[in-house]
Design goal:
The chain has a domain of 118 residues. 48% of the residues lie in helices and 17% in strands. It contains 6 helices and 6 strands, in the order αββαααββαββα. Strands 1-2 form a two-stranded antiparallel ribbon. Strand 5 and strand 6 form a beta hairpin.
């Protein structure tokens, strides 16, 4: 696998990880099903890491935990799963070449990216919790960070899920109109 086949890319790291699972007209897809998919995702995100089985398992666990919090932010089990991923690392304050800096230190290097993604979700929730959203599209699994001016974005993509919703509403209106005529 050389290209990133996902329909939504470029989201903040945590949501980009969530978006390695998606549904389209061909069915459900999971980019993190094997090392080749992990390598494609790493390349797409500009990160380097080992594409071994333990790193892959860690990222899949982090993805499930992040998705749980995005979909059910007040659910105790979802929060506990995210906190379990976060417990695998910590921030370390240090003096770097350009002054004070904060560095991530995972306890196990294979959890580095999984922990980074979970920590990224916390940063997003700290800054603008209402802008971390799941797409409103029927059966869509994708998540996004709403950067629209009004903060009212509903769809991962207006061209995909937004169009489907419009078509579904139009169909329902036309069926209702036929019955009442």
């Amino acid at each position: 696998m050389t290209d990133d086949p996902r329909p939504l890319v470029g989201e903040p790291f945590a949501l980009d990880l969530v978006n390695t699972e998606w549904i389209d007209h061909d069915g459900r897809h999971d980019l993190l099903v094997d090392a080749a998919g992990l390598t494609a995702w790493l390349r797409a995100t500009g990160r380097t890491a080992s594409a071994d089985a333990l790193s892959l398992a860690a990222l899949r666990e982090a993805r499930a935990a992040i998705r749980g919090v995005v979909e059910r932010p007040n659910d105790r089990d979802a929060v506990a799963a995210l906190n379990a991923v976060l417990a695998r690392g910590a921030w370390v304050e240090r003096l770097g070449p350009h002054g004070p800096e904060r560095a991530a230190t995972p306890r196990d290097r294979r959890w580095a990216l999984a922990w980074e993604a979970a920590a990224n979700l916390l940063a997003l929730l700290r800054d603008e919790p209402g802008r971390v959203r799941r797409c409103s599209g029927h059966d869509c699994l994708l998540a996004f960070y709403d950067t629209s001016r009004t903060g009212r974005r509903q769809w991962c993509s207006m061209a995909i899920c937004g169009n489907r919703a419009k078509a579904r509403r139009h169909y329902e209106r036309s069926r209702t109109g036929e019955r009442s005529a």
